[in-house]
Amino acid sequence: MQLDAEQLIDVLAEKIGATDEGTVVVGIHSGGAWIAERLATRLGRALGGSIAVTLHRDDFAHRGLHPQKQSTALDFSVDGSDVLLVDDVLESGRTVRAALNELFDFGRPKRVRLAVLIDRAGRELPIEAQFVAMTLPLDPNQALDLTRADGHLRFEILPR
Amino acid sequence: MLTTNPQLTADKKLRHLLTIDGLPKAIIENILDTAAQFVSVGDREVKKVPLLRGKSVFNLFFENSTRTRTTFEIAAKRLSADVINLNIGASSTAKGESLIDTIDNLIAMDADMFVVRHAQSGAPHLIAKHTNLVRPGVAVVNAGDGRHAHPTQGLLDMYTIRHYKKSFHNLSVAIVGDILHSRVARSGIHALTTLGCPDVRVVGPKTLIPTECERMGVSVHHDMKRGIEGCDVVMMLRLQNERMEGPLLPSAQEFYKSFGLTAEKLARAKPDAIVMHPGPMNRGVEIESRIADGAQAVILPQVTFGIAVRMAVMSIVAGGGAA
């Protein structure tokens, strides 16, 4: 099954509505970074870069280091900033926890809000998104993958 | 002595780093890619990541080295590990304890990783084989053993070359000086040939170039000007006075005249050639001062990259070779 992520980005932008001028949009690598780019344009707000969570993952002890060439790149001063953190899917909340730790290694933001395209339930931490384009409770053995083909973003639901 | 390769797991992942010799290209590239992520950690407000939180890293330096020990210590601390520096020369070994007994005692103290520097080639291998047997999961990183290998130096040299030259294809690299006593040279040659560098040259006096060099796939030069002609990278080595046995060299002055890197000789290399040195430098013996401080020298960036490369190696072996 497929879902058009581009439409969901429109929905998300609408739900977010008006934002303060200083709002900086930051994506979580990799899916969140693609969405953050589009969302920043829709909202007319600055794109602050992207966060890679590899160094703060909590499964290092049993899975080791994840291979990832991408590292965090933030081109604004995090101290006192108003961050809109963006990811494609919210499930356990562990990625968001890691992303917040990574963000705080760069400074102390004034406020951080979370926007996701799909909330698929399955939370393992007390983390919620302020803005959700779609709620889609899925079975734990289903995977929801964001893919980019010809510049178009799509979700695919696959067996895990 | 080195017939088995205890540094890889059964499914060819890195569980110790002992030597670059025989290391698959994919593992070397993965270490360099991982190091790239760690380079930026040094620029953050919080220069620490939590990957090795709660792990104990023991620095076992049976031989002195300020720079290597310090950069390993900084790397481990930036990964949030607890670092214990043991001044082995002044402790148990001096009282007659065997190497394996020392290791067993440290394992009993719940060591997670050993960073080993030893004057004896093969000492880190011995320790790795032992930990594989008695406590698998305890990782060993070779920080230089005898004349054999200094893999993290070789890897940081590769990181430096890749940083400035982007790729190893079409590169000409000259390694100059005391090749015979240099584990840095040996590690560098293995890494360069594995990464696909087509033209590796060793340059030095006949007495300081081992006969095995040609079998390692490099060309040998005894005339420095010809040896560095048109090359992209000049890797200078330190003249290892403390390792010299017998009269291999007439004098330091004579060495400088023939194999010291001067502006005049460097003019033979490409105009954008970079100059590297593993340190500590003997100014006026291997390298002219104004070259060491000049625009082509990348000697201090090598030190900075060394921290990131050691972070990468430690986090990969601590994670059981995954990545």
Question: Which range does the strand content of chain A fall in?
Answer: 35-45%
CATH architecture annotation of chain A: 3-Layer(aba) Sandwich
Shape of chain B: globular
SS-based class of chain A? alpha/beta
Please tag this protein with its features.
heterodimer; A: 160 residues; alpha/beta; Rossmann fold; 6-stranded mixed beta sheet; 3-stranded antiparallel beta sheet; 9 strands; globular; B: 323 residues; 2 domains; 5-stranded parallel beta sheet; 4-stranded parallel beta sheet; 36% helix
Structure write-up:
- The complex is a heterodimer of chains A (160) and B (323).
- Chain A is 25% helix and 35% strand.
- Chain A is of the alpha/beta class and 160 residues long.
- Chain A has a single domain (2-56, 75-159), classed as Rossmann fold (3-Layer(aba) Sandwich).
- In chain A, helix 1 (5-16) crosses helix 2 (31-43).
- The longest helix of chain A is centred in the N-terminal third of the chain and has 13 residues, at 31-43.
- The relative contact order of chain A is 0.21.
- The mean pLDDT of chain A is 93.
- With 323 residues, chain B is of the alpha/beta class.
- Chain B has two domains: 25-149 and 304-318, Rossmann fold, CATH 3.40.50.1370; 151-302, Rossmann fold, CATH 3.40.50.
- Chain B is built from eleven helices and nine strands.
- A five-stranded parallel sheet of chain B has the order 7-6-5-8-9. In chain B, strands 2-1-3-4 form a four-stranded parallel sheet, with helices on both faces.
- In chain B, helix 1 (25-39) packs across helix 11 (299-318), helix 3 (99-108) crosses helix 4 and helix 5 packs across helix 11 (299-318).
- The longest helix of chain B is centred in the last third of the chain and has 20 residues, at 299-318.
- Chain B is globular.
- The two termini of chain B are 29 Å apart.
- In chain B, 48% of the residues are buried.
- The interface between A and B is medium-sized, with 22 and 22 residues.
